[in-house]
Structure formats: structure tokens, C-alpha cells
Amino acid sequence: MTTFRCPTLLPLCFLLIATLPGAAQTSPQSNQIFIRQLQEKSSATDTLAIFRRVFQALPDEVYVYPSENYYYWDLFLDGIHYKGNIGLFAHLRAEGKVNFGYYQEVFDPLTVDNYSGGAEWSARQGVFLEEIDPLQYRLSFEGKAVIFHLNPSDPNPDPPGLRSHERLVGTTTDESGVWFDLLYDTLHRHFFWVLRESEGASEPLCQVTDDLWVSSRTGFAYVADSLGPRMILCGVYRPNIQKNTWYDGPFDQLPDNQIYLGQLDLRTFLLDAYPELTGRIDRYGHFLDDPESRVALASYLSYGDLDSLAWAVESCRFSTSSFPEFIYYLTQDRSPEQLLDPAK
């Protein structure tokens, strides 16, 4: 099997500014506020200045939903739309290190340059990270302190429909608000993602064919398991991957807090699937020779239109002899480059 890498210390995903559950009622966002934000002037032009602007605007407590501990933010400065994250990554926070990344959103990142930046900070730069408990941290900068509540890591029970040759690796919360179970197929030595319908934001599913469904909100596409009550992720809408939106797929949201607390041995699963990685990765799947990258579990298609996706699903079904084999070939590992451009 081919191993794919994805960078982890750069702004891979979009932002989600979240307060504690139940802290405030959802409010509509008006065009008036949008235009006023666009007109706002600022002298924030470098990474530290943008971090200062973001951090000073945070409430005293925030909740980090995504499983890889990205706290996403969204900001307009001088008519430019910035998106990024404050990362309290499991493999760095014990060292008091905080990651900050951002980029400019543009209408077409394939043809228009979008400036990006980022940094890794610690007490040496005046950014102080203090552990309150393993899933609660206090981040202090220039006299202001914010408590970050990280995603609870309690292991979940096996999901419905789990077969004898499948193992639950862990449950993840995607930045889209969707929860997924990451499963491992011991027969084919292969990872794939299954929607955990009992948790997270609901997926409003629309039926495309007899067994293909797509979410009208996220664009995530699923095949219905013919032998069990579950929906298997088979596709992510390609423009969302190209624009790096909240809906770019769960490949970058592994259950890191479970790994951090010793509740999950991800490396054992990775080495079973990719024996060539022996001695080359840490327990999170980061490459020892390139710590800013980790093994990418992007086991789904990217699609540009539903007709093409439906054709791919049906072609795969008719060329396989069993449902497990069908899922294996349909959810083959794809590199980030293949997801952006299937011609590769």
C-alpha cells in the first residue's frame, strides 16, 4: 500500500470560532456587519500582529471541537478575508508550544495566489501555555488569558454494523461538525470512515441512486451499507478541498487526544497497514524525518459532480464480488494531490 503524507503545522483547515456549549444562542449574521468588517482598517500586516488581533478578540473560555485540536478563526482586515487556526497539537502542547497559521481566502486558489503565514510559539516569544488538566489549557499573551477546553477523548462503543474483520480505531469530530468512526479493515489492511449518526451535527442526506447519498450541507457523499445500518464516506466535493473549507473531509482530524492519553495505539494500526513505515513515524503518525507531516488517511474519492461520482460507485460495485471488497476498492487511499486533481 502507498503511504501518503499531509502537512500538519500549516493552516490545513478552516476556522471555527466556538464558545462553550449553551453559552449563547445562535444569531443571524447580517450583511451590514459583513460590509462594516470589510471596511475596517488595521495595521496588522505580519503573523504576530494578526495573532494579537485574533487572540485579543477571544472570550475568556473557548471550546475546541475538531479532534486534532485546531481552534479555527475567521477575520476581515483591510478588505482581506483571513482564515486560520490556533493549534494546541497533542505532540507539541506538552512542550508549551502553540501553533498559529493563517491564509487569505480567494475565490479560486488554483488561479489566484493566496498569501499564507504561520509560526510556532512558546514562552520564548511571550506566548505561555499552561496545562490545567490534560484536556484544559490556559493560553496567555500580553496580559490576557484564555482557557481552551479540548475535545473529550472518552473512547466510544463499537458502532452498529461492525463486522468481525473490522476494528474501531477511534471516533473523530470533523470541523464540519460531523462525527466519524475511523474503522480498520483487517482483511484488506485498510482504513475507511463511517458516519456516526448518533453524535454531532445532523447530515441532511439526499438520495442520488439506490445506495448513494449526499449531504446537502457538507457535500459529503456516502454509500449505504447493504448489510448493516451505516453510511460509509465515499466522496468529498472537490472544490471544498481546493478551497480548504470546513467541508474538505476528515483526513486531518484524527483522534489525537485519545492517543495523548494512552487510550489509542494508532501506530499499531498504521504499521499493520503500512509496514514500510516501521521506525519512521511517531505514535501520532508524524514522520520522524519530517515532523510537520503525518500519514494522511484520505480514503475516499473527490468529486466534481454527482453524475461522475455515481458512475464511479456503480462501476466499482459491478467489478467487485462482495460488499467488503466493494468498500475496499471504493475507499482506496488517495494522496492530497489526487484529491485536488484526480488526473494525477
How is this structure best described in words?
With 344 residues, this protein is of the alpha+beta class. The protein has two domains: 145 residues, no CATH class; 133 residues, no CATH class. The chain is 20% helix and 30% strand. It contains nine helices and 19 strands. A five-stranded mixed β-sheet has the order 13-14-15-16-19. A four-stranded mixed β-sheet has the order 2-9-8-7. It has a four-stranded antiparallel β-sheet with strand order 3-4-5-6. β3 and β4 form a beta hairpin. α7 crosses α8. The radius of gyration is 20 Å and the shape is globular. About 5% of the residues have low confidence.
Detail the topology: elements first, then pairings.
Layout: E1 5-7, H1 31-39, H2 47-57, E2 61-63, E3 70-77, E4 80-87, H3 90-93, E5 98-104, E6 116-121, E7 127-133, E8 136-141, E9 144-149, E10 166-173, E11 179-185, E12 190-195, E13 205-207, E14 212-215, E15 221-224, E16 231-237, H4 238-242, H5 256-260, H6 266-273, E17 286-287, E18 290-295, E19 301-303, H7 306-318, H8 323-330, H9 336-340
Parallel strand pairs: 2-9, 16-19
Antiparallel strand pairs: 1-18, 3-4, 4-5, 5-6, 7-8, 8-9, 10-11, 11-12, 13-14, 14-15, 15-16, 17-18
Helix pairs in contact: 7-8
